Amino acid sequence: xxxxxxxxxxxxxxxxxxxxxxxxxxxxxxxxxxxxxxxxxxxxxxxxxxxxxxxxxxxxxxxxxxxxxxxxxxxxxxxxxxxxxxxxxxxxxxxxxxxxxxxxxxxxxxxxxxxxxxxxxxxxxxxxxxxxxxxxxxxxxxxxxxxxxxxxxxxxxxxxxxxxxxxxxxxxxxxxxxxxxxxxxxxxxxxxxxxxxxxxxxxxxxxxxxxxxxxxxxxxxxxxxxxxxxxxxxxxxxxxxxxxxxx
Length: 247
Description:
It is a single chain. The protein is of the alpha/beta class. It has helices spanning about 5-15, 60-65, 100-105, 110-125, 140, 145-155, 160-165, 175-185, 200-205, 225-235; strands at about 15-20, 25-40, 40-55, 75-80, 90-95, 130-135, 190-195, 210-215. The chain has a domain at about 30-55 and about 75-135 and about 175-235: Rossmann fold. An eight-stranded mixed β-sheet has the order 1-2-3-4-6-5-7-8, sandwiched between helices. Helix 6 packs across helix 7. The radius of gyration is 19 Å and the shape is globular. The protein starts with a helix and ends in an 11-residue tail after the last helix. The model is unreliable at about 240-245 (pLDDT under 50).
């Protein structure tokens, strides 16, 4: 057996397909050991990534097509799992929408970076869980470039919803179906969601994946993001700080 074939065989064992539609599959790759350190916080997560592919492609064909697919031009989503995520009786998850400015640069215009890092700490402390990092959710689904334009409008007094509407978008175009399919592939038992967003709760509830309650995550309040956070509650229906039970 050639070295190339050994490589392909090894990688295929780390890949699995789950059906997205009649013409597309979601190809999930992992787990990959990912040691993480942020200040005093340290943990080793199991990292998964996923990519939507033609349903006719085999795993070997997916590997063969990587170099010509220009995947760098379209972000792929991923999962950070901790503990026995597949079998653990209780697992915390966060469906986290990518925020280039908040997660990477530490922008104080939002609370996204705070929520991401706090969720990782909560999951480690709990002992079992996962963060689904959703790469096509930038700016509530409008993309990074459009988000930069929305930020300019916000500097003129628009709130988040008004700015998105002014650019021709709905206030929130995010969809959680692919992430839920990946979740169902990695784990069949219910989960507890770390969120303030009722749309995320509704999406998981419709698939029968949600435990009885959720864990709210408020914090990271600054002078530069307090209007943004209040808009989440006033216009996007985000749940205020008390813990609630899904009916």
